[in-house]
Each structure stands twice: as structure tokens, then as C-alpha cells.
Amino acid sequence: MGSRVEILNDGGFRSDGRRQYELRDLTIDLSQQGVADGSAIITHGLTQVLVSVFGPREAKMRSQTMHDRANINVEVSVAAFSTGERRKRSRGDKRILEMAATIKSTFEPVVQTSLYPRSQIDVFVQVLQQDGGLLQACINGTTLALANAGIPLLDFVCAVTGGVHSTSPMLDLTLLEENDIPHVTVAVMPKTGKVTLVTMETRLHVERFEEIFRLACEAGKVIHAEIKGAVRERTGRLVAAMGSGPRAGGGDLQDDDAMDG
Amino acid sequence: MVDITIRKRPRTEAVVTQRKFFKKTARGKVIKVLRERYLRDDVGCGIQNCTSCENSTAYTLPFTGDTQHKSFPNGHFLLPDTNVFLSQMDLMESSLFKPPIILLQTVMEEVRHRSIPLYNRLKALVRMDDKRVWVFYNEYRSETAIIREDNESPNDRNDRGIRKATEWYNSHIQFTRPIIRGQPKPKIPNVVLMTEDAANRKKAEESGIAATSIRKYISSLPETVAAQLLDLLSAADGNDIEPTRATSGRQAMYPEYFTESILQAGISAGKLHKGHFTTSTYNYLQGSVSVPGFPKPVLLIGREHLNRAVHGDMVVIEIFDEAKWGVEGDEVVDQEATLKNDDAADSDEDEENDDVLRQEAKAVRASEAMAQQKEKQPTGRVVGIIKRNWRPVVCHIDATALPSSGPPTSSSASTLSTQTLLAHPTSTLLPRIRIRTRQGPALVNKKILVAIDAWNSTSRYPDGHFVRVLGEVGGEDAEREGLMLEFGISYGAFGSAILSCLPPEGDSWVVPPKGDDDGVWKGREDLRDLTICSIDPPACQDIDDALHARPLPNGNIEAGVHIADVSNFVHADTPMDTEAAARGTTVYLVDKRIDMLPALLGTNLCSLRPNVERLAFSAIWELTSEAKIVNVRFTKSVIRSKAAFTYEEAQLRKDDPKRQDELTIAIRLLNTLAQKLKAARMAAGALNLASPEVKIHLDSAESSDPIDVEQKEMRETNSLVEEFMLLANISVAQKIWEAFPATAVLRRHLPPPRTNFDKLKDILNKRKGMTLDVSSSGALAESLDQCVDANEPAFNTLVRIMATRCMLSAEYFCSGSVGRDTFGHYGLASPIYTHFTSPIRRYADVLAHRQLAAAIGYSPLHASLHSKPHVERILEVVNRRHRMAQMAGRASVEYYVGLALKGRGEKERQGQVTEEAFVIRTFRNGLGVFVSKLGIEGLVMFKRDLTQFDADNYTVTIPGSSTAVSGDDDVTISVFDKVVVNIEVEKDKNTQKGKVKMTLVHPIDSRAL
User: Fold this and answer.
1) Do A16 and B38 touch (CB under 8 A)?
2) Which of A1, A20, A207 is opposite residue B863, by nearest beta carbon?
């Protein structure tokens, strides 16, 4: 084996000091970014993603307009400095397009698009830093940004990566672990327990799969609690700001938020 | 459901928790790597009954520490640094050395980084029952985690981390045992840092940490223990062992190695080459390294050019200009003879052993002189070592080396001062090793185990240290143990964890009655009524295969091979499975079998004994009368073998026309099929290879004194069993490869490179006028059949043996890791092959069983067998074990042939045995001969000056003027000539090492030469 790092050592620790079922540090920043209608910066360990949502608004191109519902348009861009090796990815990169398509299809059944016929919701995902679990960060970030933009969702979508080292399952893999062991990304809607996405690029045995799948669903609920807490806090602060007397006008609010981060 | 949590990492900790470094890729690109780590407070200290760490039941360190040591009356724990493990692993492993040890993660990782074998030993040490070792993950504990500072080398960082952890431990112990008023003051055990680095010790003492060197620590242990442990100390820690000798005055005997960066640059620029170093079997001053760019291995001649390389090392060599190329020496240089009088103590003082140098130089010059005549071979010298292949070596001590050779008494042994001795390895490929010991006289006539520690450029011999005594020289137990150690065979008894995996009923286990559907009968076919029998060598206890055959109504024949269902008892991921995987194979020595599985399974529950119901894994074919496969199926089954034959019994039964019972008819049926199968295989180009196999007759089971040696006989029934096993293996290989294309456990035999045969072709052509076509296995088989000498029936076998030696060895592999076009088995001419038929004695078969069981849907496949790296890793071990087991078996036979010769010689006349032999190699001063009757190879040495040597025609001519020749005519001996040799076992008086010595009797008497 090429890697000289032990994925899981005899003491039950992973290479970064976590145990099998421990997720990485999760920070969420919901403050206003630029002119976006809703935005979120989410950090899973050393993976950081900025998601900005615009809309619902009139579709720029007529061809994309649908008469019964809104169109979700997802664009992903990966910053050249996000990986250790500086590498510029073009927008036409197949992997990036695929990721965008995955995010789109994950959210289509969740966003209540039929409320906004003939309009478009733009989701721009910017990857700032990568260390494994990229898709999970993108999905969690998109959920937050959509919620922040006030777009009605049926439920939160929470994604987690699960992998298996020999026979021991583990959650929320770093890049190092993703390179070495088979892994699955699962996105769940915690309230209903429905799964909107399962994706896997490596080979994994059927029996292992079930175990990891269940585990990832369970972990989705933990993420959910965290995300919900962040949204609640943000909303609470907005409500408090609205009620606090004479200060009117949005400008102040924005300043407030900027300071939060 | 498990507890899933998010580990929070405060922003303020980022300095400690994030690590940034730059890494250079193989292509030379520099990339930045950012890693994070999560610091925690729940990393256990490992001390029993610790009040502040949770879950302290699993902890291994005693509450009071170790109170035996004189310097630490309050008790202590030992905390060794990395170098202690790197250089003194033998000491740490000794059963006499047992203070409680705290092993830091920093140390573990550093050891892992430096040497994987040592790391594995370290891991085994942690698991050892009688050791008290606790691994403390200091890098993950918030109080002990540190980061590298600017201008700090990684080593300094680690040292600081180790000191910090020691400090933490001390305060942790103090904190958890507060002084309670009214109670006696609790004894606070000390955590002692053990390091050989004086600067580190000083720093530690400055910050109030107790620190000690290894030597100091051991010296104040109780006396009896200390003396023995001091011998185990590796010589690598150098300086303070020989304070009296001025090291600076010594002259360098070898050129220094290049630095690592020069080596790496040289290799990537193609100026230097790396490869495995092999010492020549015939000449200890000569070695070779196979390098990809050259058709022939690169030759290294002379001590200086070998430059401290030891057999098996991975070395870097520089190749000389073509003008300086030499040829392989054509004479035999024996280390024992050349260096007889070299004394260990002063072998470094150059003036005293001039004659050693002179002799060696002469040997080297002789081959240089030859260089003009013969085709030159690339020649070079060693300039660096990438990886040492230093394992413990079985040695003995030369009695003459001791100053006082009086009879050793037990009392003098312990009081004697340190002596420097040369230990002589049993293997001629290794150099002698200098050791220092206090037990000198007690070690004479003993087989001892010695570890090599270092080889400085100022020292002729490598330095090593004594590990332990194996037993008396010549004692069978010591010889056997030495042999097993030499080949790395683990021969310990099975541990209790392993034995607890056996069925609880023990040997009263039986197949439960049919009808309970949930038990072993589930999914099994009932084949108890079939007429099944097994055919094995005599006295075979682990019967793992049985056969049956019966005609079918449609005119075809049903044939079945039934293999012991080991995987029913050995489940994946159990201690027994892990042990079996580590052992890899059962090792057969002449007088002992070292089992892969506990004997209860191997010789009883799995063994397909007659008239007992046993679980089996069956492969059943429908064959046409022409032995073409119509279809095949695999099933788990229950069988009841009707009889267990030996090859001989089966043969007699088959040949006896009066016998017309069911069993005999089945054997005949099988035999006709086997002959057709064999014919088909041969037509496809399978090779009929030969290896010198002999059988040792032992006197009785108890004394195991060998009486005689004979060659193994091959009967028709041997080939019968073999053909069906091959058929089963091929069918199974096909099936599991279809089911698991990425991870199937298969076996292959790569076709040998053509150049391997060059020499043999040349000899055959020149001496016998025969040609060898090596273009394919079929062509080779055909041309081997042509190599017949009408007068000499054994000649063909000899050529086959020599051809076999030119080939590569077969190996297990994981189907996903090599290309499909390299699956083939060259020797068997089969496109795909595996091992399925001997799961009791080979681990690869157990894996194949599991995969086949999954392929037929009998049981799910264990997750580990889906993982390619996992299968690759296991097979790598199994391959190595397999090779080692073969070599050990051969060495054991050799040893017993020696004993048998001695026995026979004593019976006949004056300890001598005379046998016919073939010449297989000629040297300037000797002949390599092969005694086919005994299956041994030997050397006949001449005094050089009398003979004429023709290297091109492989002949040696002894002039008629010599006294050895009876007539006046010159006598010429060449390769393939038949000679008569006198074989005797000579015991070296000093070393007590039995050595087979051969002398020519016919056509000349070489004793006069």
C-alpha cells in the first residue's frame, strides 16, 4: 500500500485523532454575502464551501422557462487554491458539471418549485478549500443558503460521507481517507427519513453497504440538529432586529450580520 | 445504534491543530498539504485504577509501577524513546525484561517510518501477554500534543514531544494521588525516560524528569538478570562499549557510502542502479545484483567493491566503464578456509592480518586475469544501501577463538569479562559477525542466535549482538530450531485465543444427524452413499482430498473430488484465521511437521478419514469417456470415505485382476480418466519437470535417527491423484475468477526469460550436441524429451532438474492486481490456476474455499476478501511463507542426508560412502557435482595449479604427469560427465559443524591433487 498513514490504528483513532463515528468540526456562517438573496459558508473540518442563492427570479433564457414550476440552476466553481496543488479547473470540467447535476437532482424534489412557475432559482457553489467530503459540504451548504433565501423547502437535506476500512465503518472522511477506502455519500431528509441522494464512485460490497448506509442516515440527523440550530439562531436574530424599535431600514441589519461572522 | 458526535475544534486552537507542510511528488512537483487533528481529553493513561481516566478496566499498567529496580524505590514506569526500539528490540522482547512500559504514539510512528519489520515486532510486543505495555496516543491528547517550531528538526520535535509526555505523566500521577490528611503519604511512582541520547537526557533532567540510559538502567537490575540482558544489547549504540579503544586512529577499510541525496539523484539520472544483492554460493568475495537495464546481473568482485553489502540487501551500485569489466570467477573461494586465523579482537588492526588481505587479493586477481579471455560481464561496486535485510542469524562460535579453552564451568561463565568473538553463520552467504559477550566459554559448541547491528567502514566484519542460545551443535532440536529461525518459520504452540476458536466438543465432534436444517446440513448435499476413497502417502494424517467416480446412464462418467471443508471451522477474522494467515502454510521437515492449523482440525475434524462422516467441499464433473468436461458443479457436502489407501496399496489393488469390487473399479475408472487428462495436458504443452526428491527413512518415531535415503518413487496412482487435483484447481480458478474478477485468489507461473536458459543451452550444445528450444513451454517440453542419452537413463532427469532451476517460481496473486494476459501457469500450460485442494496445509486454499462458497451462493463472502489491498497483503505473506517453507524443507532434508551418510559410512568402511555423480559445473579449481541417488549437490576441490581449465568448453583437464592420474594420458572432465565420488561427513574440530565433503574417486583420485 502506497500510503504510509494508518487509516485506523489499534487504539481506535483515525489519522486526525477522531474515532470512527466522530464527525469533523462543523461551522456555519449565514451572514449576507454580496447581493445574493441567501448565502451560507459551511466548513467541515478543512473543507469549506460558499453557496449563494439568487431567486426565484425571472429566467434569463426563455428556453429554460417552465410553465408549471421554477427551474433550479446549479453552477459549481472550484477555486484554484482550494487544493494543495494549484490547479485551475475550467467550467466545462466533466467532474464539476457532474457535481452540479448531482446537487440539482438532489434538491429538485425538495424545493417547492411549483410555487414559482416560469422562474429560476440560481445556486452558485464556490469551493474554497477541499479536504474530502466535498459533495456533502456542497449539499449542506445549499440547504442552508436556500433556507436563508427564504425559498420554501419540504425539509432540510443533510449529507454525510461514510466509508469502510476493512470491516470498520467510519464517517465524514478526509481526503486522505477518501483516497484509500471505499465511501458513499448519502443525503437524507431527516424529518421524513427519506433519502434524496446516494452516490458512490468506489466499489463496495452489498453487505457493507447497508451498514454504512444506515450509519450515514443516522449521522444525517446529527448534522440536521446542527444546521437547524444555526438557522434558528439566525432567524431569531433577524426577528429580534425587526422588533427592536425605531431602527428601521435594511442597511443596519446588513451591518449587524456582517459583524456576526 | 452507535453514538455519533461532532468533534468541535475551537478556532483558537488552530495553531496546534492544523499542520501545514510541503511535499514533493514523485514527479518533482511541490505541493502544499494541510492536515488537521483533533485534540481530546479522553486518551487513557493506561494506569490501572486511575481516578481521572475513564474506563480504566482495560488498562495494563500496574498502579504502583515496577518496584523491583534499585534506583527507583517508589516504583517506576519506563518510557523509552524511538532509538531504544530501533536498536535494542531484542532487549525489549526478552522475557527477562519486564518493567511496565509506556509506548508513545510519537515513538510508534517514528519506528514505523524507519522500519516496517521493526514496527511489526513492536506491535507484536504490545500484544504479548507477559509484557505490560501501554500505547499512549500523546499526539491526540490536548495536554501533550506539540507542534514543530521554527528551526526545529523533526527529531528535536519528537524528542521534545516525548519529554513533554513524560512530564505530563508525572504530573498526572501526582494529581490523581493527592495527599490526604491523616493517611500516610502515597508512594508516587516515577515515569522514567529511557534514551541513549545524552543531550536529550540532559534536557530532561533540567526540566526535572528522571532519565536513564539503557546500560545504566540494566546494570542496576538484579545481578543475574543484568548479566544476561547486557549481552542482548546491540552493538549499534557504539561509543561507550569500547571506551579504551581509540576509534579515530582506525583506518577505513571500506569506502564510505554516498549520501542519500546523491544516491537518489544518481538513480533518477540513470548513473546509479539499485537492486537486490546476492552473494555467490561459491565465492564469498563475489556477488551480483540484477539490474533492469542489463541482460546479465552486474558482478561485484572483491571485499572493497562489495562494500559491506550483505546477502539480500537492497543496494545501490555504480557500474564501471566497460574497460574495467570482469568475468565471474571460476574458482571456489571458501570463507572458512581463507579466513581461518583471523581473530575477532584485532581484525581491525591492519598490520596483523596482512596475509588475510594477501590471500583475498590473490583470489580477486585470479579472476581479473581471466577477464581477458572470456566474455565480460558488467561489473561495478556498491555505493550505498537502501535497505538492509538483516534478520537474526543462526551462528556458532569457533572454539579456538577463545583465549582460554579450558572446560567452561558455570561459575566462570558469569564472572568472565567481556570478550570479542566472531560468530560464524550457518549459511555460507553471510559474513561472520563480531559479537561481544560475557558468556564466551559457555557458548562454545552451541548454536546461537545473533543479530547484526551495524557495519562501520572501519571494521572488516559487521558488529552484532548475541540474542540467545538454541542448543548444542549437532543436537537435533537445536538444528531444527536453528533451521526454523533461519527461514522465519513461527513454530510456537497455538495460543489460548486460537484454541478457543475450535469447536467446544473437541475430538468428540461429529457431523450432527441429518434433519436439523439450520446447522451444518443447510445447503449441503448428502454424498454419504458414494463410494469415495482417499489416496495419500503412507502415514498421512491430514487427509484433505478424496475421490470418487461412477459411470452415468448416458455413457458419460461422473467424477468427484472432495476436499476437507476447512472453511466451515476456520472463519474469517478470528484469531485462528489470523494465525493461519500469518503461518501461511504447514511446514514439513523430515522429522517434524509445523502445522498451520491446530492439530485437532488438521488431523482429525477436517481430515477425511475413512468410515467417518466428514464435511467436504466437492467438485463434481460430468466427463465423457475421452475425459472432456461436459459440465462441472461445486457443492458443500457430507461424505463418508470408504477407505484410505496409500499410493502403493491403491496401485496393487488396481493391478490385481482378481479384485472386482466397487472401490477397485472406481480406481480403475479414475485411472483411465487421469491418463487421458494427462495426455491432453501434455499435448497442450505442460512441462514434466523434475526436482531431486529423496525420502528419508527414519529408524523409529522416537529416536528419529535416519537410516537410509532413497529416491521417491512415482507410481501411476500418484499421477492419478495429481491429475484430478489439477482439474479441480483449474475448474475452481475459473469459477472464482468469474465471480470475483477483482479479488480472486489465483496462482500463476510466469514464463521464464529466454536468457535464463542461455548457459544450459550452450553446455548442452557443446557437450552433447543437443539443442533446447525454449520458445514456449510446449517446445521446451518436447526438446527436453529429446535430451536422452541411451547409455544413461538418469541423464534426462538431470537435464530436467537443471532446466527447472532456470525457471521462475510460481506465485499466488490477486486477480485484480495484474493484467489478464499474465494469469497463465507456464509449467502446467493452463490459462488459469489456483490452489483449492489442500486447505488444511495451505492458507491460499482456505481463501479459495471462501470465495468458491460465496460464488455458489452458499455463504456470503467476508468483507476483507472484497478488498484488493487486503488480499494482496495476505498473498504477499503467503508467498513468502511458501518459499521459506520450501527452503526449510530442503535444508532439513539436506541435514538428514548428512546424518544418514554418516550413519551409513560408519557401518561400511571408515566413514565413507561412494556414489556415482554427475558433473554439473566446472571451476578452475574444482567441480560441482550432483549425486542423484542422494539428491545432494557437492563440491570437489582441487589444488589449483595442476589443472587446465577451459571455460568455453566447460572442461577441466588434469595432466598425465600428475600423481593423481594412473596412466600417462591427460584426463579431461567436463560437464555432464559421470564420475564417482567419495562422500564423507567431516566435522570441523573447532566449530563442530558437520560438513559434507566430496572427493573424486573415478576417473581420477582427487585426494592426491
Assistant:
1) yes
2) A207
With beta carbons under 8 A apart, name residues in chain B contacting A131: 34, 36
Q: What pairing do the DSSP bridges indicate for beta strands B393-397 and B419-425?
A: antiparallel
* pLDDT single digits (tens) B81-139: 988 888 888 888 888 888 889 999 999 988 888 877 788 888 888 887 778 888 999 88
Of the candidates A3, A114, A7, the residue with the CA atom closest to the CA atom of residue A67: A114
Residue B217: CB atoms within 10 Å? 23
Residue in chain A closest to B112 (alpha carbons) equals A4
On whether the CB atoms of residues B101 and B131 are closer than 8 A, the answer is: yes
Task: Tell which residue, B920, B918, B926, B931, has the closest CA to residue B979.
Answer: B918
Q: Of B18, B135, B573, which is closest to A11 when you measure between CB atoms? A: B135
**Grid cell digits, residue B841:** 496445509
Residue A93 forms contact with B (CB below 8 Å): no
Q: Which of these, A216, A199, A196, lies nearest to A153 by C-alpha position?
A: A196
CB proximity A26 to B under 8 Å: yes
Residues of chain B with CATH 2.40.50.690: 260-387
Which ranges in chain B are annotated with CATH 3.40.50.1010? 56-233
What is the spatial distance between Cα B405 and Cα B726, in angstroms, rounded to a whole number? Answer: 59
Least confident of A212-226, B10-24, B65-79, B301-315: B10-24
CATH architecture of the domain covering B393-486: Beta Barrel (2.40)
The CATH number given to B260-387 is 2.40.50.690
Residues 6 or more apart whose CB falls under 8 angstroms from that of B698 comprise B590, B591, B704, B705, B706, B707
Question: Where are the CATH 2.40.50.700 domain residues in chain B?
Answer: 393-486
List the one residue out of B235, B223, B239 whose CA is nearest residue B69: B223
Cell numbers at B57, concatenated = 478496566
The nearest CA of chain A is from the CA of B9 a distance in Å of 6
Q: By C-alpha distance, which of B1001, B499, B900, B396 is closest to B695?
A: B900
Distance from CA of B13 to the nearest CA of A (A): 12
pLDDT 10s digits, B664-684:
989 999 999 999 998 888 888
Please give the Cα distance from B364 to B370 (Å, whole number). Answer: 10
Residue owning grid cell 524528569: B209
Q: Which residues of B touch A9 (CB under 8 A)?
A: 137
Higher pLDDT, B160 or B442: B160
**Is the whole-model pTM more than 0.80?**
no
Q: Which of B31, B34, B137 has its CB closest to that of A11?
A: B137
User: Residue B867 and residue A166: Cβ atoms within 8 Å?
Assistant: yes
CA angle B421, B425, B431 (to 5 degrees): 80
Residue in the structure block whose three cell numbers are 555504480: B318
Location of each CATH 2.40.50.140 domain in chain B: 908-1008
Structural domain spans, chain A = 26-260
Q: Report chain A residues whose CB lies below 8 A from the CB of B8.
A: 25
Question: Dihedrals φ, ψ of B424, to 5°?
Answer: -100, 115
Tell me: the pLDDT tens digits for B115-125? 777 888 888 88
* Measured distance CA(A234)–CA(B936) in Å, rounded: 87
Nearest-CB residue to B34 (from A1, A13, A46): A46
C-alpha–C-alpha distance, residues B599 and B74, integer Å: 47
Superfamily of domain B908-1008: Nucleic acid-binding proteins (2.40.50.140)
Write the CATH number of the domain with boundaries A26-260: 3.30.230.70
Residue A26 C-alpha, separation from nearest chain B C-alpha, in angstroms? 7
**Domain B56-233 annotated CATH 3.40.50.1010:** yes
A84 touches chain B (CB under 8 A): yes
Q: Which amino acid would we find at residue B736?
A: I
Residues from chain A that touch B105, judged by Cβ atoms under 8 A, are 11
